[in-house]
From TrEMBL:
Protein source organism: Pseudooceanicola sediminis
Keyword terms: Metal-binding, Riboflavin biosynthesis
Job of this protein: Catalyzes the conversion of D-ribulose 5-phosphate to formate and 3,4-dihydroxy-2-butanone 4-phosphate.
Gene Ontology CC: cytosol
Pathway entry: Cofactor biosynthesis; riboflavin biosynthesis; 2-hydroxy-3-oxobutyl phosphate from D-ribulose 5-phosphate: step 1/1
SUPFAM superfamilies on file: YrdC/RibB (SSF55821)
Protein name: 3,4-dihydroxy-2-butanone 4-phosphate synthase
Database matches in Gene3D superfamilies: DHBP synthase
A single MF term (Gene Ontology): metal ion binding
Entry's EC annotation: 4.1.99.12
Biological processes, Gene Ontology terms: riboflavin biosynthetic process
Pfam families, per the entry: DHBP_synthase
Length: 202
């Protein structure tokens, strides 16, 4: 099934926490999102992605590296959905992707940054192939969804709603608590924003 066009828009005054996160995103820096349904994530504007930021996400956040896309963007790229079976609360993923050109194995930091940039910049699916090493998920109006919160924050910052994001895994292999996510953000000099404060924007 190829996605059809849907969008979710609301406007609300930003809290100080969200304003700081928006400033960081505009400057091309990463932000930690806590309180999402699937656990905390490190995210940034996809247009600012670099091999260095991919390497940081892979090394420090340790989880699945992917993108957050609007349904419209996913439809433009011709991405089909992965089916959900008995897990309606899980993130809504599409097929995985890879840049058509400029990559080698696809798994290196440089290759994954190239794939994210290709998916961000193109308006059709011509610059990407499937499957690959980047895993897009789609916003769907879930106020605690990783994709929804990331894209709402980018819109609030006045940036295109395409995010690079990486789920977080703690040093012992478990999903970090929100307290641990905030400690992680503080240790790395990142802004941390809670999904509950972003929810009115979704």
């Amino acid at each position: 099934m190829v996605l059809q066009y849907m969008e979710f828009h609301h406007k609300i005054a930003l809290t100080d926490e969200m304003s700081a996160a928006c400033d960081a995103l505009v400057e091309g820096r990463m932000v930690v999102l806590a309180g999402t349904r699937a656990g905390p994530v490190v995210m940034m504007a996809a247009g600012a992605i670099t091999p260095r930021s991919v390497n940081f996400m892979a090394r420090e956040a340790r989880g699945l590296l992917g993108m957050a896309l609007t349904p419209r963007k996913a439809a433009m790229l011709g991405l089909s959905l992965q089916p959900r079976r008995g897990a309606a609360e899980r993130p809504l993923y599409t097929v995985s992707i890879e840049a058509r050109e400029g990559v080698e194995t696809g798994i290196s930091s440089a290759d994954r940054a190239r794939t994210i940039r290709a998916a961000t910049e193109c308006e059709t699916g011509d610059m990407i192939v499937t499957p690959g090493h980047i895993f897009p998920q789609i916003s769907e109006g879930d106020t605690r969804g990783q994709a929804d919160c990331a894209l709402a924050l980018l819109r609030a910052a006045g940036l295109p709603p395409v995010a690079a994001l990486c789920s977080m895994i703690g040093a012992e292999g478990a999903t970090p608590s929100d307290t641990e996510a905030r400690a992680f953000a503080a240790a790395h000099g990142l802004v941390c924003v809670d999904a509950m404060t972003i929810a009115p924007l979704v």
